[in-house]
Amino acid sequence: MAGTHMKKYDVVIVGAGIAGLTAALYAARQKLSTLVVSADLGGQLLLTTEIQNFPGFMSIGGLELIRRVEEQAKTYGAEIVFDEVVGVEEREGVFVVKTASGAEYASDALILAFGKSPREMGVPGEREFKGRGVSYCVICDAPLYRGRRVALVGWGAHNYENIILLRDYASKVYWVFPGEKPIEEDELLREALSKGNVELVPFSEPAEVKGDKRVQALVVRDKRTSELRTLEVDGVFVEIGYVTKTGFLRGFVELNEKGEIVVDKACRTSRPGVFAAGDVTEMPHKQAVIAAAMGACAALSAYAYVMEKRGRKVVSTADWRHVEIPGKKKEGGGLAIKLR
């Protein structure tokens, strides 16, 4: 049984991308106590500067869309904790999520919606200082480094928003990247450098993270000369893409040969009480709108599971009586979820 010191929720959702946040919105609206645990906010959607195929928007940025869904979920009471999930287990019918920081969260139902996970640098000290100065989410943690020195390891157009945010909070930002320029667009690069507190560190790669209780420095290696340079910083932000990381789920739920989670049409996994949504599943169409729909489905299935576990049966009914039919009197109706 979960320890008395461990806070217990109706549902814990792993992942804060479009699938996870939509699941949080739907679960919270059903009045389930809901916690989202994720290493970052937005996931791969943050790599998309413009989305033109999400219903309801002619055009919207990935960050703006994520922020809107995050606000909706929080409005209904969902909580969000930024931490990397490193393990899950079931203890006497209660699911326990373990994080890199050592925290544990318990729940009656579990939704796995973490899509792909942030790619790590793979250098000494990185894992030791996760959550203690090493972050994989600029938009989550930049405000924590107001007036401090930080490094951003990342390149490509999607990092423009990251560098702008960091330079507005931090006193000094080292931008570390392996090529001649971090982004191709000269106008954007000039804007990023306009405040005078961003220093470019080109042709460089991270070599080691150093510190005591928290990060104190990032050591980088010049790819041309192999010369090492120590950057004295309080934080290291890593924004170098995403990878699929489901190894910690082996033996817990069924995975296919690609390491994706196998689900049925109700987003149920092979383990009762555990649901999955979005790009982490075997769904072949990796689209934001599909991930969002799966998040909603997983949340409603989790709600039904929790209610039935408490002895209340859920009956989902589609009632289309609100649709006017010529020659018939209009009646009220809609989509309803009933408890028996």
UniProtKB/TrEMBL annotation:
**Does Membrane show up as a keyword for this record?**
yes
Q: Where is the FAD/NAD(P)-binding domain?
A: 9-295
Could you list the residue ranges that cross the membrane?
288-306
A single GO molecular function term of this UniProt record: oxidoreductase activity
Q: Which Pfam families does the record match to this protein?
A: Pyr_redox_2
Keywords in alphabetical order, please: Flavoprotein, Membrane, Oxidoreductase, Transmembrane, Transmembrane helix
Entry-linked Gene3D superfamilies: FAD/NAD(P)-binding domain
Protein's recorded name: Glucose-inhibited division protein A
Q: Which organism is it from?
A: Thermofilum pendens (strain DSM 2475 / Hrk 5)
